[in-house]
Amino acid sequence: MGGVWVALGANLGERERTLNAAVREIGALPGVRVLRRSSWIETEALGGPPGQPPYLNGVVELECSLSAAELLAALHAIEARHGRVREVRNAARTLDLDLLLFGAQRSSTAELELPHPRMEEREFVLAPLAELAPDLLLPVSGLTVRRRLEALRRACNEALPRHAAADMPQVFATPAGAREWLAARRPSSLGFVPTMGALHEGHLSLVRRARSENELVCVSVFVNPLQFNDAKDFERYPRDFEGDARAVGEAGCELVFSGTLADFFPESGGARESIVAAPAGPAGLGLEGAFRPGHFDGVATIVERLFEIVRPNRAYFGAKDFQQTLVVRDVARRLGYPQIVVCPTSREASGLARSSRNALLSPENLERAPRIYAALCSARAAWRERGVRAPRELRAVMLRALDGSGLEPEYAQVRDPERWTADEPSFELERAVALIAARAGAVRLIDNLRLDLDESPA
Ligand code: AMP
Fold first, then answer.
1. Which of 25, 113, 133, 402 is the most exposed place for a label (fewest CB within 10 A)?
2. Which residue ranges in the chain fall short of pLDDT 50?
3. Cβ atoms of residues 346 and 317 within 8 Å
4. Any ligand 1 atom below 6 A from CB of 206
């Protein structure tokens, strides 16, 4: 059976080597296969005699045809081989192996307690578990691993004096927590950066800009299902809340929050169909709007709700998502706030626009992807050097540049950036933004470039 989880820990000797050896030994047990293992994370020793060295901890998932008792006995034998003597509770140890879950099996004998009685209270178990199985439902709390870990961390944060951990922002797993905290702080100016997480340098450039212009900076991390028109894309979308919180803290953000769809739209009772959408309006028509039906309504709906929760003075968006900046400007105009600040696109040295989805590219497609920027640059060269102004001709230049790239363009067109039209303009332009969407394997990438202006560096 699968769904068998074992926690590993070591705080003596060559910890990493011991843990790796233990994984090999577990995998060599008859009837046991190691399906995956987390990275090893370092944590301070909890309880036990004072002055213990820190632990390395991780988890593995197994497929196992042994019984739970047989597996436990085999794990104890491995511990013993590595010199562990189970005497002093919480004392230092070369190797600690705990059986966390054995599928849905429950047991409460003196020898075997399943699920492991303290697993949902331990960050050093939940953090590596969240890396592999964030959506696994925990048997005691009924929460997913991710939610349980966030709740545990929030409880720790609330118990700590503010800024006890250098550069760590306040983290809230729900928008309600963030709203309360903001209401108590009442900053003179509040900068807000909405994101879907898996943050990279592009996002951080927005946070730094917000930092330089406001007393307080808030970041939201929410992979918004309403703006995904492709369920697979939503599932595959990279997630790393813990890494995101750390990164935005270092960039100067004081508050980061997340939540579920039901947290953001409690009036819907968690039912997606009952959420009243904020229509994106004319800026949502054409190009992204045409290729991703419903996408911009999803963006407008969450952005409006995020603005209502955070009530920022300024909100920061990336030029990388050009059409989105038009949609959110319309939302802000309708609400009467905040000021929308559009920041330059941050690029890799190859010209490739930074994107969370780049992490999903195969090495081969990562090599191809900069051809998108190259195609935008050829349109700019045609505009500048040959005086080309006809949208059709600029489209042809870009499509030619993408020919043979191994990328599949969905569109490569120009628009007047100040007068959005759903369709390609049929007249010559005085100002132009070139926009491309292309697929690199299963990954859809977008980028754009002003043809009439220099791109300022991010
Ligand atoms: P996302 O997490 O993709 O929803 O992006 C959150 C915000 O970061 C949006 O305003 C994006 O436009 C912006 N952003 C994403 N990638 C970049 C980039 N490479 N440069 C600048 N801003 C970006």
1. 113
2. 160-165
3. no
4. yes
